[in-house]
């Protein structure tokens, strides 16, 4: 049987190690109200659902219908290492895994807001990016 | 250079076409904006038809599966970058240094999203002077996944006019967040004719609807609900190449939708005449409103702007002057002003 709204709320609450009281406080509702929703004894208005989804870091679509956001196809696309990164990797003696990780981290930022020009990083900039990530890559 | 411009224009058209195709509308800016606005209204009205812009932002972030991390100090920025990096999401740590420059926000697509977790995380830099732009940065970041559902565009193409797309994302974000009946009614009341707009009305609008938004964002969003051309401007003391004496000049001038369509604008660095409410506000340090004739605005080449009666509402802020110039019905308040 498919999970209910109440089950999804409870599972996410437990995943975030929240008590009913702390989630109720975050979502601006009473514990008894939350308890009834978790036990599928009450319906949830749109506004309540929004308060719960925001408090749990999920979406209304997920809570109400179990719909996961569609993952992007972007990361299934074949990636090629830019020549500037390949040059930096060779200079610094980076492993293939470290090089790919830096490239993936760069691709992970899909949009940004600011006045800096949008251009391909130089090999020195790739190297600086590797240094910023080194401790996480080597962990 | 022309090759570069052609290339960036192609990229822009490609993105616009892809967005329109996904939304099932014509591949024009107007059609895409309208579709985004309608979709946003539909989703927000389903929760409550009387949401404020701040509340709409929460709904739209949910719909677009965007989680916000808003940082107000260096320590908070470091903590967020490290927390996501430790969870295998390295994008913010990689860009950490860029935030110390002019980067306002960045959106990351989670690679390790767990069940029910939002797919995107937008890091909003609200440190120091960037705080004023934080609300609008959130609206902007919510608009990105709406316009680019797959977010599969290669943002790393070298383009000279990339800002053309970002300007559209700005507009869509503004229209989606500053929308709905509650906002439309309040914004229309603010610009209600006959011309009596004062900056205090915009402060009231901001405080009641979107306290965290900047005055510029609120004024522009409200101006988009009037049927008049209007400019939201900042003026301050500045020199110009032709006229090196420091004088009160236009620092920034942003047109509303109608002014943009009609190509109504005042150039950056145009000198503000002493008779303008903007100059009076600057000298007196108090708000000032009134009619003025744009023919009194003389450029450094000695040429005046085309004569038009406009209503100017000005307010001094941090040594500069914030103002809204309302061109009135049909592009001039002349009939009313001469009564």
List the helices and strands and how they pair.
The complex is a heterodimer of chains A (139) and B (339).
Chain A: H1 5-15, H2 20-27, H3 31-38, H4 46-56, H5 60-65, H6 83-92, H7 96-108, E1 109-113, H8 123-137
Helix pairs in contact in A: 2-3, 2-4, 6-8, 7-8
Chain B: H1 2-23, H2 29-47, H3 53-63, E1 66-71, H4 74-86, H5 91-99, E2 105-109, E3 120-125, H6 134-147, H7 163-177, H8 180-190, H9 199-209, H10 215-223, E4 230-238, E5 247-255, H11 257-261, H12 277-284, E6 288-293, E7 309-317, E8 320-326, H13 334-337
Parallel strand pairs in B: 1-3
Antiparallel strand pairs in B: 2-3, 4-5, 4-8, 6-7, 7-8
What's the helical proportion of residues of chain B? 40-55%
**Order of SSEs of chain B, N→C?**
HHHEHHEEHHHHHEEHHEEEH
Measured by DSSP, the beta-strand proportion of chain B falls in 15-25%
Largest interface: A-B, 49 and 56 residues
CATH class of the largest domain in chain A: Mainly Alpha
How far from one another are the termini of chain B?
52 Å
Q: Give the integer mean of the pLDDT values of chain A.
A: 85
Low-confidence stretches of chain B: 1-5, 152-162
| Elements of chain A, N to C (H/E) | HHHHHHHEH
What is the domain total for the residues of chain A? 2
What distinguishing features does this structure have?
heterodimer; A: 139 residues; mainly alpha; 434 Repressor (Amino-terminal Domain); 2 domains; 8 helices; 59% helix; B: 339 residues; alpha+beta; Beta-Lactamase; 3-stranded mixed β-sheet; 13 helices; 45% helix; 17% strand; globular; disordered N terminus
Short description:
Chain A is mostly helical.
Plain-language structure description:
The complex is a heterodimer of chains A (139) and B (339). Helix content of chain A is 59%, strand content 4%. With 139 residues, chain A is mainly α. Chain A folds into two domains: 5-65, 434 Repressor (Amino-terminal Domain) (Orthogonal Bundle), CATH 1.10.260; 83-136, no CATH class. In chain A, helix 2 (20-27) crosses helix 4 (46-56). Chain B is of the alpha+beta class and 339 residues long. Helix content of chain B is 45%, strand content 17%. In chain B, strand 7 (309-317) and strand 8 form a beta hairpin. Strand 1 (109-113) of chain A pairs antiparallel with strand 2 (105-109) of chain B.
């Amino acid at each position: 049987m498919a999970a209910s709204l109440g089950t999804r709320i409870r599972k996410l609450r437990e995943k975030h190690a929240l008590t009913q009281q702390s989630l109720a406080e975050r979502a601006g509702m009473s514990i008894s109200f939350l308890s009834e929703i978790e036990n599928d004894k009450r319906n949830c208005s749109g506004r309540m659902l929004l308060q719960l989804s925001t408090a749990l870091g999920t979406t209304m679509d997920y809570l109400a219908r179990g719909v996961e956001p569609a993952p992007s196809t972007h990361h299934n696309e074949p990636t090629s290492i830019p020549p500037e990164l390949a040059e930096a990797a060779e200079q610094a003696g980076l492993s293939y895994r470290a090089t790919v990780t830096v490239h993936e981290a760069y691709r992970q930022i899909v949009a940004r807001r600011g006045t800096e020009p949008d251009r391909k990083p130089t090999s020195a900039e790739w190297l600086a990016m590797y240094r910023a990530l080194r401790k996480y890559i080597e962990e | 250079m022309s090759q570069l411009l052609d290339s960036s224009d192609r990229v822009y058209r490609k993105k616009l076409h892809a967005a329109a195709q996904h939304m099932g509308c014509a591949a024009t800016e107007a059609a895409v904006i309208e579709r985004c606005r309608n979709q946003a209204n539909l989703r927000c009205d389903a929760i409550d038809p009387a949401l404020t812009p701040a509340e709409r932002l929460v709904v739209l972030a949910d719909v677009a599966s965007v989680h916000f991390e808003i940082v107000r100090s260096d320590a908070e920025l470091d903590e967020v970058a490290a927390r996501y990096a430790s969870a295998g999401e390295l994008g913010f740590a990689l860009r950490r240094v860029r935030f110390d420059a002019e980067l306002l926000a960045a959106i990351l697509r989670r690679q390790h999203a767990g069940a029910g977790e939002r797919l995107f995380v937008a890091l909003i830099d609200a440190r120091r002077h960037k705080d004023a732009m934080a609300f609008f940065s959130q609206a902007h970041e919510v608009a990105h996944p709406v316009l680019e559902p797959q977010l599969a565009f290669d943002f790393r193409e070298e383009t000279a006019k990339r800002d053309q797309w970002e300007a559209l994302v700005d507009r869509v974000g503004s229209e989606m967040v500053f929308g709905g009946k509650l906002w439309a009614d309040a914004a229309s009341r603010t610009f209600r004719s006959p011309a009596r707009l004062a900056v205090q009305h915009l402060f009231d609008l901001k405080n009641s609807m979107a306290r965290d938004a900047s005055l510029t964002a609120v004024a522009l969003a409200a101006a988009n609900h009037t049927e008049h051309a209007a400019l939201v401007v900042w003026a301050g003391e500045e020199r110009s190449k032709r006229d090196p004496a420091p004088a009160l000049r236009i620092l920034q001038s942003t047109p509303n939708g109608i002014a943009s369509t009609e190509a109504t604008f005042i150039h950056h660095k145009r000198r503000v005449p002493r008779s303008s409410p903007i100059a009076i506000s600057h000298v007196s340090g108090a708000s000032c409103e009134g009619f003025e004739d744009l023919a009194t605005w003389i450029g450094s080449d000695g040429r005046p702007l085309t004569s038009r009666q406009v209503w100017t509402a000005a307010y001094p802020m941090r040594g500069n002057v914030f103002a809204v110039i309302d061109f009135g019905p049909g592009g001039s308040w002349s009939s009313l002003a001469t009564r």
